Fold:
Amino acid sequence: MANPIGGQASGEFKETSGRLQPFYVVTRNTMGILTPDAFTQLTPSSSVAAPANLSATLVGLQQFGVLGGSVAFTRGDVGNNFVGGPTAAAAVAGVRPLGFFMNDANGNRWENAPGVASGRGTYVHGSGSTVGLSVYETKNLATNADLVWAVGDLVYASRNGLATNVSASTNTYESASPTVLGVVKCAPDATSALLVIDLRV
Structure:
């Protein structure tokens, strides 16, 4: 059966060129202030991602700052009410995943850059929200093995600040009891590369 994301079997979903496609959103949160490194961090942000295990969804992407579709973290290490990507290499107290950024912090060429103008970065959360991601991990960060995404997989925040289905501490930002960000509703396949999840945060 064809993946419904590509519009082959159902008109419910339609893939777009954005890195996060909101299908059903409970909350678009703009309260938090973007951290300075939300505009400057490398993609991926962690030294864990050596060239060998770089996500295939990031190949050819040369952009600084958090991306739409990457994980939004509360950043207590910076101060009250700050949000951004993960810290560089290891978990830090006061840094936990909240949801997924809707837009790139630095915006896109030839478009308005609301994050730069306002210092705010909208992120999606709320149990029951359904979003499609075009950026996510495609490799196990410890073994370099290809990830196989499947319907029903639990989704966590990787050390790179992307969605992963590997709960091992070698892959997740939170090494102990990682936060479940959502459940895979539609897995990427040969028809569509979009990863669709129902949020649980």
Observations:
- The longest helix spans residues 114-118.
- The CA atoms of residues 142 and 170 lie 6 Å apart.
- Confidence is low (pLDDT under 50) at residues 6-17.
